[in-house]
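Instructor's aside before we start: the two examples that follow are unrelated to each other. I chose them only because their records fit on one page, so don't look for a connection. First example below.
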Amino acid sequence: MTQARPRFGCIEAGGTKFVLGIAEAHGAVLATTRIPTTNPADTIAAVIEWFKANGPVDAIGIASFGPIDPDPASPRWGFITKTTKPDWSGTDFAGRVGRAFDVPVGFDTDVNGAALAESRWGAAQGDDVAVYFTVGTGIGGGAIINGAPIHGAQHPEMGHILPRRHPDDLDFPGVCPFHGDCFEGLVSGPAIKARWGASLSELPADHPAHKIVAWYLGQLAMSVQAVLSPRRIIFGGGVMATPGLLEAMRSEALRLAKDYVTIIIEPPALGDQAGLLGGLALAQAAFTTGQKPWV
């Protein structure tokens, strides 16, 4: 039953953890918790159990790691498709959650969700074009154009662009099981640990990894600026918490741009709540449309 004041279930589904929340329409988060990302059956069961204990909710929004199928007209809507996350390929995620509660469900990538939240309540308010990147367990990019995330044949996979290799980093093959040395394969958290044995923030400040990672991320920013011409590019995620990294990669992006394009790079104004509030934005949209593609 719809409450006099709608309550929304919000899910930020990441490769290492899920963040769950109950929020009101104006963005106030009433309750939240975190659960580890294990196998699909146990993780989704824990999600359903928590919402049943903390509900009711009038709609649920899921901002998920991918790749996913976000097309409501597709028979595979709500599925995580061919992912690098073990055991999750082919998982009916949103459909299972929706059937458990019989409420509208919004479903998109975690980065599209975060980009949507930043465009509504954060750093990209008022921007007609904005891009959000997360650099963590993987690298994903979400783009917002005139208030809506980009979808086409599928959602964007900006982390899987193939970069120019750094001259001091030619031998590392990359960790992406699909593309090897794409950006995700070279500078995601697992790629950094595979190459240098520690996370970037754990390495000494004078370690060459810092310059190499900043160089690649600057190149990523330059690439997306040339393609989409966003007003600003927002970089979040665990790797970006490394002190000085945002400033270093911003300098690299500007150096690569050579005054040919204008690049504005900022951290998320919503901090680590960007993904969860992305779930809220998706839930609100689903509530408005009554979206139940599994019916």
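Example two begins here.
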Amino acid sequence: MRRYITFVLFFLATVTRAQPIHLDMQVFAERRDAFMRQLPPNSIAIFPCKPTYQRNLDVVYEYRQESTFYYLSGFEEPEAVLLLNPSSPQHKFIMFVRKRDLQRETYDGPRAGIEGAMQTFGADTAYFFDDFRTHLYRYAKPDGTLYYTFGINPYLDDIIQKQVIERRAAGNWAISDPSAILAEMRLIKNDGDMRMGMRKAVEISALAHREAIKSVEPGMNECEIQAVFEYVYRRHGSPRNGYPCIVGSGPNSTILHYNANNRTMHAGDVLLMDCAAEYGYYSADITRTVPVSGKFSPQQREIYQLVLDAQNAAMRIVKPGLIKKTMDDVIDSVLGTGLVRLGFIKNKNDHRIFTLHGYSHWIGLEVHDVGNYTIDGKSRPLVAGMCFTIEPGVYVRSDVFEKMKGIGYSEQDIAQIRKRVEPYMHIGVRIEDDILVTENGYINMSASVPREIDQIEQLMSEKGIGNQR
């Protein structure tokens, strides 16, 4: 385990400025083959691209390809379809793409076209997107199954629905959603996932967190810290955020998905930063909480250390075979016991009025990535290759006393607890790291961002790019 952590820290220390993302087309081909091996005979699978969305007049929202579409192809252009045809000896991988258009390419950049779809992306054959409806009849097989996910692209949904109606009128023709198969594939990361984005997404995000922590000082606006994150992301090759930056100070630290990021920070506040980059379509997810003044107050230290103890307790038990829910149970126990000790609750099982959310989720091509958390109604065991967060939190909000009434606390109980809680009001602490399960244990991929109180305070004594004025 120590060897793995040393490697991660060394790699982080050597990250350079932005480099182009290298796409290994063999990785995409292996994914397609693995998927097609799971399909029954006489079936085809169709994967729709994400549509573009108009923002205003001639401006569209930033385009990001649908995650599974990208996972199987590496292709990022809109107006595209993937068709997988496992029973064909020659045309297993078929692409439908936009026509080349010199005028549009002058404005928007080059298009792959049919030649690029075959030569660069490895399609066995390719057609124009506008001809998808016509060619679909060639590949859909009588008495076969078509795998397709509705709800991604309304235009293609309409074509598929009409095809289903026509085919079912003529005979037995089934349609099935491939999402469950692909979710299980995407859940287990291999070397291809790591090389083409997962590792680098975490590395860039970790670098940004270190710079942001060094940059925090009273009088700054939350948006200035967001700017630090996004500068580091772009400088190191991340084209976009993994999700909107959450930079919440003072009372905003207790809002779980706060992203207005427009408050001036003051000495005495804590600052919660839940921010991460996307790279190669993979997203990290890291959270750190720091004192705006550079030193934790006694109350802030107590809450912070409680959350850190809970996270450490969960990390210590991560290994293949561990039932995932066991991590949640361990965190519940640590936080519940600690909140009773602080006098915030009477019974450790009442901790949810302060902890508010779950403690872990898969990460990958989406920040809350696909994959079942249970199998046959039971929490699933961890296996090597799973990537997930561990993110306990405690949030002292002004509405907590109303919640106490809802779980049976008397007015007298609440009055006594209020005296204990008030000095901690508006302290929100979340600590979140990105974990990779290995054959023998785990790697904390975001370990280069300090978590210990003294390490955070030491890092905050340095100057970051956000306060080099």
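Confidence is low (pLDDT under 50) at residues 1-15.
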